[in-house]
Amino acid sequence: MAFHVGQMVVCVLGGNPDGDGYGWEEYPVKGRFYTVRSVLTGFTGEAVRLEEIRNKEALYEVPGGVDQHEMAFYSMRFRPVRTTSIDRFTSLLNPQPDTVSA
Questions:
Q1: Domains in the chain, number
Q2: DSSP of the chain
Q3: Is residue 3 domain-resident?
Q4: What does the alpha-carbon distance between residue 82 and residue 13 come to, in Å, rounded to a whole number?
Q5: How many other C-beta atoms can be found within 10 angstroms of the C-beta atom of residue 73?
Q6: How far is CA 61 from the centre of its chain?
Q7: For residues 48 and 37, is the Cβ–Cβ distance under 8 A?
Q8: For 52-66, what is each residue's pLDDT tens digit?
Q9: How far apart are CA 60 and CA 68, in angstroms?
Q10: How does pLDDT run across 30-88, given as a tens digit for each residue?
Q11: Of 22, 21, 29, 65, which is closest to residue 50 (Cα–Cα)?
């Protein structure tokens, strides 16, 4: 799923399901809303960093070795937040009468 910077997302898979990291990192919480801070693509697919979660840099595994960077989260753990206009609900309260063509 392609996300963009500034996009609102909701976490659908929280915590640390893969057991990655050192144990001190903060992870997204299922059901909470976040703002995409950056989008990364790499050997494991798309990942995002979030405005609301800022972990310190540490050594993490990358193709061919290790690198020091801030942890990112797989984009599959999130879905876009959908906004619905109040007009959609207002129209349900005021149904239009059925018309018959002659």
A1: 1
A2: ----TT-EEEESS-S-TT--S-S------TT-EEEEEEEEEETTEEEEEETTB-PPPEEEEETTEEEEE---EEGGGEEEPPP--HHHHHHHHSPPPP----
A3: no
A4: 18
A5: 23
A6: 22
A7: yes
A8: 999 999 998 877 889
A9: 6
A10: 999 999 999 998 767 899 999 999 999 999 887 788 989 999 999 999 999 987 767 76
A11: 29
Task: Please give the residue range of the domain that contains residue 77.
Answer: 8-92
Residue 75 within any structural domain of the chain:
yes
Sheet holding 8-11, edge to edge: 73-74, 45-50, 33-42, 8-11, 78-80
The residues facing 26 across adjacent strands are none
- Token pair listed for 49: 């960093």
Report the amino acid identity of residue 23. G
Two structure tokens written together for 57: 């840099």
Does 99 fall in a domain? no
Cα dihedral 38, 40, 44, 46, rounded to 10, equals 70
Place of tokens 């392609």: 2
